[in-house]
Amino acid sequence: MDAMTLAAEEGAYLVSINDKVEDVWLQEIQKIFELDSFWIGLSDVAEEGQWVWHSGEPVTYTNWREHLKGMGNTEIKDYAISYFGGGWRAVGDEHTPFRGGAILERAHTPVKQMRSLSEIGVWAVNPANGHGYIKMPCKGLEDARDIAAAEGAHLVAINDKAEQEWLLGFFGNHLYWIGLSDAEKEGKWVWQNDEPVTYTNWGAKHSFPRSTLSPEEKDNAVMTFVNGQWHAVGPGDLLWRTTRYAILEKADVSNSSAAEQK
């Protein structure tokens, strides 16, 4: 989780290894930094046995260590590391040896363009609905709501898969506060802007470290860096403490400030 959080802060993702040439090259990097092992972006947390890259790229190459290959076929071994000398191993929370580091990857130009839009206060317009969106740093959920109110906006409401994919494509994998809550009535999730809930993208319950909170205390939601999946959170959760960005949305950006229009 720490590696994914650091990647998100850099506008990057855990490395995708697409062929043997890239794998061998990364092993040389591993030697330079003297890593016993490193996290790679491969996971089957969304669907058991269906391994996908953190970046969303198709899996075109694998390098499982033969004597450890079957160890990925369990519900608790959802992530992968690359060993010193080559070869991958599926690991889980219960026993993750030699956690030496992580190798991050990013496509420079698109990421810089996406980050600069938020940094200079430009609202990105989704052509599908004409709404404006912006990524804002925040101290936490209440701060995110205050910032949204000051902008005449609300925390994003995600109404279909197309909007979800547009947000991921534009803002990238990160931890974001979204406008979903069941604080008023347990189990009845509603959007902050009162739009009906017509689409959900909840992640698997075991995707993140287990919480001591009861479900009734998890009244709000974040969009995560695991393929944009959503997770319910409450005070004290890891994701509650580490989510420091929000995506804001508003229907009309014609009255944006001069700084936003710049």
Task: Give a structural overview.
The protein is 24% helix and 21% strand. With 262 residues, the chain is an alpha+beta fold. The strands form four sheets. Strands 3-2-4-5 form a four-stranded antiparallel sheet, with no helix packed on it. It has a four-stranded antiparallel sheet with strand order 7-8-14-9. A hairpin with a 6-residue loop joins strand 12 and strand 13. The chain is globular and about 55 Å long. Mean pLDDT is 81; it is low at 109-120 and 257-262.
Overall body shape: globular
Looking at the overall shape, the CATH architecture of the largest domain is: Roll
Please identify the oligomeric state: single chain
Which percent range fits the helix content?
Answer: 10-25%
Discrete helix count = 7
What is the CA–CA distance across the termini?
A: 36 Å
Average of pLDDT = 81
Q: How does the helix and strand content classify structurally?
A: alpha+beta
CATH domain fold name of the largest domain: Mannose-Binding Protein A, Chain A
DSSP strand content:
15-25%
